């Protein structure tokens, strides 16, 4: 039997395996708790993602208050995987925060593209000329994704 980590329902190999059962509030607490080992905190990021509810999505958004840029970046990434519109206001805030780590902002931009709400396009346009290429390029990709999803080619893929 292989000891390799399993593929998630999102087709990715998570860096820390999600829990099968537990409470949203307990998982949420650890996101910003520096006493909890990072592996456990990361497990809870993926546990909340798999829960998939609006409550879990908003609990994940509290992870942006964490001191760890790594954890904040992972939160932004899984919010893109979840594709839940409840995360949009927080992701817009994170993308626009000039004090936030560039990789967190990059993931927030890509998550906004992945959520697929076309009304967010003008927000992304504000950053296509941003001096940091991680931000300008991510917004360009996210805009192109939104446009592609509206295109004829997307209709053909969907059949
Ligand atoms: Fe990334």
Question: Which keywords apply here?
Answer:
159 residues; mainly alpha; Leucine-rich Repeat Variant; 9 helices; 60% helix; globular; binds fe (ii) ion
Any overview of this molecule?
With 159 residues, the protein is mostly helical. The protein has one domain: Alpha Horseshoe (Leucine-rich Repeat Variant). The chain has 9 helices and no strands. The chain has helices spanning 24-31, 38-51, 54-61, 69-82, 88-95, 102-115, 121-125, 133-149, 152-158. The chain is globular and about 40 Å long. The structure holds fe (ii) ion. Residues 106-107 line the site of fe (ii) ion (FE2).
Summarize the structure.
This protein is an all-alpha fold.
Report the order of strands and helices.
HHHHHHHHH
Q: CA-to-CA gap between the ends?
A: 39 Å
Spatial shape: globular
Give every kind of bound small molecule, once each: fe (ii) ion
The domain tally reads 1
Identify the CATH architecture. Answer: Alpha Horseshoe
Beta-strand content: under 5%
DSSP summary: helix tally: 9
Secondary structure topology:
Elements: H1 24-31, H2 38-51, H3 54-61, H4 69-82, H5 88-95, H6 102-115, H7 121-125, H8 133-149, H9 152-158
Helix pairs in contact: 1-2, 1-3, 2-3, 2-4, 4-6, 5-6, 6-8
This protein binds fe (ii) ion.
Residues 106-107 line the site of fe (ii) ion.
